[in-house]
What does this fold into?
Amino acid sequence: MNDASASGVQEKARPGLLIVDDDRNLRKLLVATFSYGKYEIHEACNGVDAIRLASQLRPSVILLDVMLPGELDGLEACRQIKAQSALKGTKVILLTALGQQNDRQQGELAGADAYVVKPFSPLRLIELVDSLP
Amino acid sequence: MRTDNEERWKKAIEGAGDGVWDWDVDTGKVVHSRQWRVMLGYDAHEIGDTLADWAALVHPEDTEARCDGLARLLGKQTEVYISECRLRCKDGQYKWVLNRGVIANRAADGTPLRVIGTFADIDRVKTVDEQLKSRERQLQEILSFSPEGVLVFSLTNELTFYNQRLLSLFGIELEPGERLSTIAFMEKIGAQLDLSDSSGLFGGFGGAEEGTLRLARPLRIVKWEARQLDDPVLRHILFFRDVTRETEVDRLKSEFLATAAHELRTPLSSIYGFVELLLTRELGEADRREFLGIVYEQTQGLIQMLGELLDLARIEARVGRDFKLREQELWPVVRRVVTDFNIPGDTRKIRVKLSRRSPLVVLDADKIGQALLNVLSNAHKYSAGKGEVAIESVQRKEDKASWIGIRVRDRGIGMTEEQLGRVFERFYRADNSGQIPGTGLGMSLVKEIMQIHGGPVEVVSEFGKGTDVTLWFPEAEQGAADE
It folds into this structure.
């Protein structure tokens, strides 16, 4: 089924999915989760690259880790992405290992469309991404 | 007649229970009334009739005060003589009496010739008074040892009581004999109060029952509790407790738990996620093997983290009581770790350069082996493909102490100043990319183990150039083993 739908939409430009996480294994997991053909997948491992790739590729979904190394963490990256009018259609899902109430609020304040706490179910994550308007 | 008159009022006084005495200053003769003797339990013939006989009954501690009083009277400094003293009764016990005398007759030059006076039993009053005073002293003493500062205000906000602990808690120093007043107290506390964050002291007067004060210099957290009594003098009782340490320990604990939870979530995400994909997706053999490899690796990491956490907790809880410390040669311990050392896929040989004489050190060989293993693994992990890892012995003399160091040196990625500053922080990892496995607990464990051995861990690092880690041991004194 995956193969069929993948070849079916391959003709048109597929929606972009940008994965941002500094953990190699997590990136691999997210790539594997979404590599069933619907999305064109891109990866970044820090906030600066995430913003650069987002402006360049205008993906429809960004999966963004909150705890990123360097001066730009996930919350700040989310804020900057949401501030770009060219990226109005882009949905940002924050992924985080911090699950406190306060952290969730921070994510909402940064303008994230959804907030997912690690560890997460890959299948549920697909459902969540598909359900975003 | 004069005598009749005297007899009449003497009777009146004795009727009231007091004794009467009549002293002829020149002859030193003293006439006592019957009541005087009854009070002390003597019969008429048992007490002589001179001042000296009387003086012999006075308690040694009270003699001086009594003599002073008499001297002042005779020296014409005063018209009346008043003294409280203890007199010895017939049964050997002492009784408190109040003596009052006036000059009845004077010579032409004013020198007293005759003194008459009364004599009252004040033993009960005195004893109760003494008991009260000693009781108050005891209470003060007990309260001065109280770990809590105590402060009492009256209905009119006067400071009616405080203990020593209160002064030390707020760093208040008083001059000898100086008493703390409400205003002085408020001023001293006000100067230290961190007003940005205090649930206020004055709430205690408004009916609030407890609160917290933050003192700025030095930073201290003080909890207070207030009680209100229906007593005008003891209206507000406030208790102050220094909770700085508890607060800090609580904070560290919740911070540690939050960090630990965070560190567990990361490997669990890989495990949970990949296993779900393995269960629900048709995967090629290569993907399947790779995912299982990641799950295996991450599970291993979790097991290691759990082990290290438990080791840390055990060392902290037992402060080294389960360490088997024994004086022994250090180099065999080092050589054993080097021989057993093995990182799969890393074929580098460790270059070992130890002094010829193997120093004697008091240590637990297993624990030091573990510490050294952690340092050696770090040296390898953070220098993959970059030069050799070496172990060498170093020495340092300090006054009388002699220190032996084991230095592990790598030519790897090194650390920035910020990373170096956090190297012993729990769960801190210089690399977060997941490319270098680790728990962030290894160096904490090394530090704890070395602390039990009484030696520091020295870390010198240059970013991009490599890192030197030295475990320092105090060398056992030669011959100490004979003891």
Q: What stands out?
A: Chain A touches chain B at residues 22-26, 28-29, 32-33, 45, 67, 69, 97-100, 117-123 (CB under 8 Å).
